[in-house]
TrEMBL record:
Organism, as annotated: Geomonas silvestris
Span of domain PAC: 612-678
Superkingdom of the organism of origin: Bacteria
Pfam families in UniProt: HATPase_c, PAS_4, PAS_9, Response_reg
EC number of this enzyme: 2.7.13.3
Keyword Membrane in record: yes
GO MF: ATP binding; protein histidine kinase activity
Domain annotation Histidine kinase: ranges: 817-1042
Protein's name according to its UniProt entry: histidine kinase
Length: 1190
C-alpha cells in the first residue's frame, strides 16, 4: 500500500528504521493497567509500515517492536501474536481488499483470541479468568492500535495530499474511534484506580490486624511478666523451700507456662516446677550459667523476653522464656524463668487474625523463628523470604515482590507478592512479629471483574463497527450518486442534454446539489456565448485592428511631443523607438534617426559606459532601476542631470527581450537643491538658534544652533510647537502675534526658552514675518542671554553685599564706639565700688548693696562685650580646642536650653583636628543656635541634632557664608545645629543676622549678630540652610589650627624682681587718660597698691611729665583713645625717650584690636576696661615682676 512518488518511496530503509524505533518506543512507553498488564502501542507503527511500505516492512517492524515484550513479559507469545496479526491483516488488506479495521477484527475473532487463550492458559498455565482477561486485553489493544494507525495514515494523506483516502473510510474510522478510545481510556483509568483502592484496602486490613495481634500478644506476655515479677518480689524475702509451692501453684494455674524455675545469682536452680523431670531426676541444683541472656538481665534488672534457646532438662526442643530478676536492696540476687508454651502463642495469633490468608512469623532478636504459620519456615531457623525487593510504604508497611527465574513470566511476581508489616514485641523489643497479606486473592477477584468489563467493551465495539459500517455506507451513497450525475458533465451539456438533480433531505447534500446546478447553468450560458462569439469573430477583429491603429497614432504623437526621454532598447542595447526629446538632446532632427543606433554612437564614451553597465545589470539580474540620477550632456556639450527609470521587458516565455526606459531632465531641480543645501548649511553654522513656525504654532524648520541650545534632535523639534519652547508664547496669543507681524513685519522682545532637560534659558528674540506663496511663517532668531543675565545678577549681588557690608560696618563702628565709652563709665563705677568694698569692714550693712551693684556692673560689661563681639572686636581667649570634646563636656548645659518634648541628639565626630578658638565664645554661639532651634520647634515636639565634622571646602561652597570676608579654600572643622522646626523664608534668612532683628516677642535681636561677630573674629564662616515647614540647619566653620612650635623665652639672668628687698624706694606710676573720672579712679587704685602717682589728661602732657620725671617713673598706665595724640603715638614717643619704661595699656576695645595696632612694638601689657582692683594688681605684678601690696 505504499503511495506513489512519496518521500518514503524514495527512502524506504530510513523510514523502515524510523518506524521500527517508533514501535520499540511505543512498547517501552506503555500505560500499565495492572502490574505487568500494560497497554502497548508498538503494533500501531507496524500497521503504519504495512500501509506505507508494504507487507514485509510491516512484519519487520512488528518483529522489532514485539521483541521488547520478551524483556517485559519474559515469554514469546505476545511477539508471535503481533507478527501473526500483521501477516493476516496485511494479507486480507492487500489480497482480499478488505478494510484494515475490519480485517483486524476478523483476525482477533477467528484466530487471535483463541490463540492467545491457548498460549496463556495451556502454555503458561494461567487460570482461566486470567487467560480470558489477557486475550480480551490483547484484542482491544490490537484493535485500538489499528484504529490509531488508520487515523494517523489518514491525517498524513490529507496533510501531504499525495495519497487518496475514501470519505467512507474516514467516517467509518471516526465513528469507531468515538466508541473505542473513550471506552479504553475509562477502562484504563478505572482499572488503575481500582487496583490502588484494592491495594489500599489490603494495607488498611493488614494494619488493623497487626494492631489487634500486637495488643493480644502484648497482653498475653504482660500477664506472664506480672506473674513472674510478683514471684520475684516474694523470692527476695522468702526462702527457696517456701517458693517451691508458689511456683507449682503458678505453673498449674497458667497453661501458658510449661516450667517455672527460681535461680540464684550463679544461675543454679534453687526451686523448680516441676521438681523432677520426666525421667525422675531432680531439677534442683542444675546450672544454667551458659544462657546468653543472663548478662543483659543482670544489666537491665527488669523483666524481659529471652531469645530462642534449646531445652536441657527433658529434651533439646526450642524454648523461649520470660525472665524476671530477683532484686535484694536493688542488687541482682537471681532470677525467675518461665518457659512459655509455644502452642499457646499459635492459638493467640490464629484467634487475633480475621483472614486465614494472612501469614505470621514471630522472631527473636537474632531473627530466629519462634512460631509461624508459613509452611516454608521452621522453628529455630533463620527467617528468609528468598530473593526479591522489599519496598517501604510507611507506617511499618512494606511491599514484598519476589524475584522469579527468567523463564517464568513477570506476571507471576505480582501474583506471589505480598504486603508486610513488622511489629516489635517486648519491653525492649526483644521479639519481632511479621504479618504478610498475599496480593493474589484480591488481585484474582479484581482480574475476574475486569475480564467481564473487557468482554463488554469488546461486544460494544463490535456492535459499533456494524453500526459504523451501515452509517458510512449511507453517507457515502450520496457522494456516489453525485459522482454519477457529474460524470462527463461538460460533454453532456455541450450536446444539450438535460441533467435531472434529485432532491435529498440532507441539508449539506441539498446545498451541494444546488451548487452543481449553478455550475451547470453557468457552463450552459458560457457554451452559448462562445458559440455566439465565434459567429461575430471577423467583425470584432476588424474593429480591434482600427482601435490598434488609432492607439499607434496616439503613441507616435506622444513620442514626438513629450518632454521626457522615452525609449525602448533590444537585447543589444540598440534603440527600437524613442521620443523626439531624445533625438533633440543628441542633436538629431527626427527620433526615427536613432532607431538601430547604440549609446556609444550618441554619447561620450564615459556616459555611454555608465548607461551600458546599468542595462547589463538589468539583463543579468532581471531587476528594475528607479529614480537613478545620471549625468548627460546637451548637443553643445554642457553637463546636465537626468532621473532615469528602467525595467526589463519579458516575452511570453519569460525571457528578457529588451529594456523600456523613461528619463527626465532634473538639472534645474539639482541646482535649486544645491542652493538650498548651501543656505541650510549656512544657517546651521550660525550659533544662534533659528526656528520657523506656521500659523498653528508648529515648528516647520530649525537650524543646528536651535538643536544644540535646546538639547533636541531635529526630528524632535519638528514634532513640537513653539509654545513648548518659547515660554512667552501661548496657543491663545500666537494668532494675535501673527496678525500683528503681518503689519509690523518684525518684532524684538526678551523671553525664556525651555530645554529638553527642563532648564530655562533667557534669550533675546528677533521675530520676522515671512510669506512664501500661499504659506506664511514667523522666523525667530534668538540669542542666549545667560551670560549677560548672570553678570547682571552678580553685579546686583555684589551691590547688595557691599551695601550690607557698609551697614554692618557702620553698626559695628557705632557699637564699638558705644561699647568703648560704656566701658569707660563702667570702669569708674566698678573701680569705685571695688575701692569702697575694700574700705568697708566685713560686717558693714551696706556691703551687700555694693556687691549687688558690682554684679550688675559685671553684667553690663558682658552686654558691652556682646556689642564688641558684634563689631568683631571682642576679647578672645584663644587656645587649641577639640570642638567635639568641648560640646561633649558642656552637654548638660546645652540640653538645659532645649524645651520639654523636643528630642536632642548629637553626632560628634571622633578625632577632630584642633582649632584655635575661644571656648567661651564658641559655646555662646552654640547655645544661641540651640536655643533658637528649640524656639523654632515650639511645643509641638521635634528633633534637634548637634553634629561636628571636618571636610575640604572649595571657594564655591565658602561663597555661601554669611560673613562678607572671603575665606581660602581648604580643610575646616564644622559644628552644625539642625532642627525640623518651622524654618525660614528667603526674606527672614536675609535679615537673620541683622542687629536688633528678631522673630521672638521678647528677643533683643543681638544673639545672631553677636554670633556673626564672634565667627568673624575667629576667621570662620556661618552657613545657613532653611526651608519653611521643613527646618533649619546652621553650620559654623573654623579653620584648622596650625601645628604648634616651641616658644623661646629670653633668660632674665639671676635677677628676680620678686626677691628684691622691700626697703627700696616706693614705685611711681604715670596715669594717662582723657577721662577725668577714669584717671582719678586709676590713681586711687594705684595709691591703694602703694604707688606714688602722676597724671596727665592727654598725650602731650604725659610726654612733658615723663621727660621731667623720667628717673622715678616705674610704670605708665596709658589709655588707647585720646584726643590730639592717641595711645599708639604716645607709646612710640615713650619708647624713644626710655626703651626700658614699662607701659600698661588700658582700653575699652578688645586685646585683639590693640594687638593688631601694637604689633611688633613690644607692649608690656594690656588690661581690658572695665577692670577691678584685683585684675589691675595682677596685671601690674606681671608687668613689673614684683609683688604689689594692697
Amino acid at each position: 500500500m505504499a503511495s506513489d512518488g512519496s518521500d518514503h518511496g524514495r527512502y524506504p530503509i530510513v523510514h523502515l528504521l524510523a518506524l521500527s524505533l517508533a514501535g520499540l518506543a511505543g512498547n517501552y512507553f506503555n500505560i500499565p493497567l495492572f502490574p505487568n498488564l500494560e497497554v502497548l502501542f508498538g503494533s500501531t507503527f507496524s500497521m503504519l509500515a504495512l500501509q506505507l511500505l508494504g507487507l514485509w516492512s510491516g512484519v519487520a517492524v512488528a518483529l522489532t517492536a514485539g521483541s521488547y515484550t520478551l524483556l517485559l513479559w519474559q515469554h514469546p507469545y505476545a511477539l508471535l501474536i503481533l507478527v501473526l496479526e500483521t501477516l493476516v491483516v496485511g494479507w486480507l488488506v492487500l489480497r482480499r481488499q478488505m478494510g484494515m479495521l475490519l480485517a483486524d477484527t476478523v483476525f482477533w475473532l477467528t484466530l487471535g483470541m483463541p490463540l492467545a487463550y491457548l498460549c496463556y492458559h495451556h502454555g503458561m498455565h494461567f487460570p482461566s479468568p486470567e487467560a480470558t482477561l489477557v486475550f480480551m486485553k490483547l484484542a482491544l489493544n490490537g484493535l485500538a492500535n489499528v484504529l490509531l494507525a488508520r487515523l494517523l495514515f489518514t491525517a498524513y494523506a490529507i496533510g501531504t495530499r499525495r495519497i487518496s483516502v475514501s470519505f467512507r473510510d474516514i467516517i467509518y474510522e471516526l465513528l469507531a474511534s468515538f466508541v473505542l478510545f473513550p471506552s479504553l481510556i475509562v477502562l484504563v483509568l478505572s482499572g488503575r484506580a481500582d487496583f490502588r483502592a484494592s491495594a489500599a484496602t489490603i494495607q488498611e486490613t493488614l494494619r488493623r490486624d497487626a494492631h489487634r495481634v500486637s495488643l493480644n500478644l502484648d497482653h498475653w506476655l504482660k500477664v506472664r511478666k506480672e506473674t513472674l515479677s510478683h514471684l520475684a518480689r516474694l523470692a527476695a524475702t522468702l526462702p527457696p523451700e517456701e517458693m517451691q509451692a508458689r511456683l507449682d501453684q503458678a505453673r498449674l494455674s497458667d497453661y501458658s507456662f510449661q516450667r517455672i524455675g527460681l535461680l540464684n545469682r550463679e544461675a543454679v536452680t534453687t526451686a523448680y516446677s516441676p521438681v523432677s523431670d520426666p525421667f525422675g531426676q531432680s531439677n534442683l541444683g542444675k546450672s544454667f550459667a551458659d544462657r546468653p541472656f543472663l548478662p543483659q538481665l543482670r544489666q537491665r534488672k527488669e523483666p524481659m523476653l529471652s531469645e530462642l534457646v534449646r531445652g536441657t532438662i527433658d529434651s533439646s526442643t526450642p524454648r523461649v522464656l520470660i525472665l524476671a530478676p530477683v532484686l535484694v536492696q536493688g542488687e541482682y540476687a537471681g532470677h525467675l524463668a518461665g518457659v512459655l508454651n509455644l502452642d499457646r502463642a499459635h492459638q493467640i495469633l490464629d484467634q487475633a487474625l480475621d483472614s486465614p490468608q494472612i501469614r505470621y512469623t514471630l522472631l527473636d532478636r537474632h531473627g530466629m523463628v519462634i512460631v509461624s504459620n508459613r509452611g516454608d519456615q521452621e522453628v529455630m531457623s533463620r527467617f528468609e523470604r528468598g530473593p526479591g525487593n522489599l519496598t517501604p510504604l510507611g507506617n511499618q508497611l512494606a511491599w514484598w515482590v519476589p524475584k522469579v527465574p527468567g523463564t517464568v513470566p513477570a506476571w507471576q511476581r505480582w501474583k506471589r507478592s505480598a504486603y508486610t508489616v513488622e511489629i516489635p514485641v517486648g519491653s525492649f523489643s526483644e521479639w519481632r512479629l511479621i504479618l504478610e497479606q498475599p496480593l493474589l486473592p484480591s488481585l484474582s477477584e479484581l482480574l475476574a471483574r475486569y475480564a467481564g468489563k473487557f468482554a463488554l467493551i469488546l461486544a460494544i465495539f463490535l456492535a459499533a463497527l456494524v453500526l459504523a459500517e451501515l452509517l458510512s455506507r449511507l453517507f457515502h451513497s450520496r457522494f456516489l450518486e453525485l459522482t454519477r450525475l457529474t460524470a462527463d458533465l461538460p460533454a453532456r451539456l455541450a450536446e444539450g442534454q438535460q441533467i435531472s438533480w434529485p432532491d435529498r433531505p440532507v441539508l449539506e447534500v441539498r446545498q451541494l446539489m444546488g451548487n452543481f446546478q449553478q455550475v451547470t447553468a453557468s457552463l450552459t450560458a458560457q457554451i452559448q456565448q462562445t458559440r455566439a462569439l465565434n459567429e461575430t469573430l471577423e467583425q470584432r477583429v476588424s474593429e480591434r485592428t482600427a482601435e490598434l491603429s488609432e492607439l499607434n497614432r496616439d503613441f507616435v504623437n506622444f513620442l514626438e511631443n513629450t518632454s521626457d526621454f522615452v525609449y525602448y532598447k533590444d537585447r543589444d542595447s540598440r534603440y527600437r523607438f524613442c521620443s523626439q526629446a531624445v533625438a533633440v538632446s543628441t542633436g538629431h532632427a527626427r527620433w526615427r534617426d536613432l532607431v538601430g543606433k547604440h549609446d556609444s554612437e550618441l554619447f561620450p564614451a564615459e556616459l555611454a559606459r555608465i548607461y551600458l553597465d546599468e542595462e547589463a545589470q538589468i539583463f543579468r539580474d532581471g531587476v528594475s532601476l528607479f529614480n537613478k540620477i545620471n549625468p548627460t550632456c546637451d548637443p553643445q556639450g554642457k553637463r546636465r542631470w537626468i532621473s532615469t527609470n528602467k525595467w526589463p521587458v519579458f516575452d511570453a516565455a519569460g525571457q528578457i527581450v529588451g529594456i523600456f526606459g523613461i528619463s527626465r531632465d532634473i538639472t534645474e531641480r539639482i541646482e535649486i537643491e544645491e542652493s538650498l543645501r548651501l543656505a541650510q548649511q549656512s544657517l546651521n553654522q550660525v550659533p544662534d538658534p533659528i526656528m520657523w513656525a506656521d500659523p498653528c504654532g508648529r515648528i516647520v524648520d530649525c537650524n543646528a544652533g536651535a538643536c544644540q541650545m535646546l538639547g533636541y534632535d531635529q526630528y524632535e523639534l519638528l514634532d513640537s510647537t513653539i509654545f513648548e519652547i518659547d515660554q512667552s508664547t501661548t496657543r491663545e496669543n500666537w494668532p494675535l502675534l501673527f496678525s500683528e507681524l503681518r503689519t509690523l513685519r518684525n518684532r524684538h522682545y526678551e523671553s525664556s526658552y525651555c530645554t529638553r532637560d527642563g532648564r530655562s534659558i533667557p534669550v533675546d528674540v528677533q521675530l520676522a514675518y515671512i510669506s512664501f506663496g500661499d504659506k506664511e511663517f514667523l522666523c525667530g532668531v534668538a540669542r542666549d542671554l545667560s551670560d549677560r543675565k548672570a553678570m547682571e545678577e552678580e553685579r546686583l549681588r555684589l551691590e547688595r553685599q557691599a551695601l550690607h557690608v557698609q551697614k554692618l560696618e557702620s553698626l559695628g563702628v557705632l557699637s564699638g564706639g558705644i561699647a568703648h565709652d560704656f566701658n569707660n563709665l563702667l570702669q569708674v563705677v566698678l573701680g569705685n565700688l571695688d575701692l569702697g568694698l575694700m574700705a568697708l569692714p566685713e560686717d558693714a550693712r551696706v556691703r551687700r548693696n555694693l556687691e549687688q551693684a558690682v554684679i550688675a556692673t559685671v553684667r553690663a560689661s558682658e552686654l558691652s562685650g556682646m556689642m564688641l563681639a558684634y563689631s568683631g572686636k571682642g576679647v578672645l581667649s584663644v587656645k587649641r580646642l577639640d570642638l567635639s570634646e568641648l560640646i561633649r563636656e558642656n552637654g548638660p548645659m546645652l540640653t538645659a536650653v532645649v524645651s520639654r518634648g523636643i528630642t536632642f541628639t548629637s553626632a560628634l565626630a571622633p578625632d577632630l583636628p584642633p582649632v584655635q578658638a575661644d571656648a567661651t565664645q564658641v559655646l555662646q554661639v552654640v547655645l544661641n543656635l540651640v536655643r533658637n532651634a528649640s524656639e523654632a520647634i515650639g511645643s509641638g515636639g521635634g528633633t534637634i541634632t548637634l553634629g561636628t565634622g571636618s571636610q575640604e571646602f572649595d571657594r564655591e561652597s565658602l561663597a555661601a557664608s554669611r560673613i562678607e570676608e572671603k575665606l581660602p579654600a581648604g580643610p575646616y572643622v564644622w559644628i552644625e545645629v539642625r532642627d525640623n522646626g518651622c524654618g525660614m523664608d528667603e526674606a527672614t534668612q536675609y535679615r537673620s543676622f541683622d542687629p536688633f532683628f528678631t522673630t521672638k516677642f521678647t528677643g533683643r535681636g543681638l544673639g545672631m549678630s553677636a554670633a556673626l561677630g564672634i565667627m568673624r573674629a575667629h576667621k570662620g564662616a556661618i552657613m545657613l540652610e532653611s526651608t519653611p515647614g521643613v527646618g533649619t540647619a546652621m553650620r559654623l566653620l573654623f579653620p584648622i589650627a596650625p601645628q604648634p612650635y616651641p616658644v623661646r623665652r629670653e633668660s632674665t639672668g639671676n635677677k628676680d624682681p620678686l626677691t628684691e628687698s622691700a626697703d627700696r624706694r616706693p614705685l611711681t606710676a604715670l596715669v594717662v587718660d582723657d577721662e577725668e573720672m577714669v584717671r582719678t579712679l586709676s590713681e586711687s587704685m594705684l595709691q591703694a597698691f602703694g604707688f606714688l602717682t602722676l597724671s596727665a589728661s592727654d598725650g602731650e602732657a604725659a610726654l612733658e611729665i615723663f621727660r621731667r620725671e623720667r628717673q622715678r617713673i616705674d610704670l605708665v598706665l596709658l589709655d588707647q583713645n585720646m584726643p590730639t595724640m592717641d595711645g599708639l603715638s604716645v607709646f612710640k614717643e615713650l619708647r624713644q625717650l626710655s626703651p626700658e619704661v614699662k607701659v600698661l595699656l588700658a582700653s575699652g576695645y578688645s586685646q585683639k584690636e590693640v594687638a593688631a595696632r601694637f604689633q611688633g612694638l613690644d607692649l608690656n601689657g594690656f588690661i581690658q576696661k572695665p577692670f577691678n582692683v584685683r585684675h589691675l594688681r595682677d596685671e601690674i605684678q606681671r608687668v613689673l615682676w614684683r609683688e604689689v601690696t594692697g
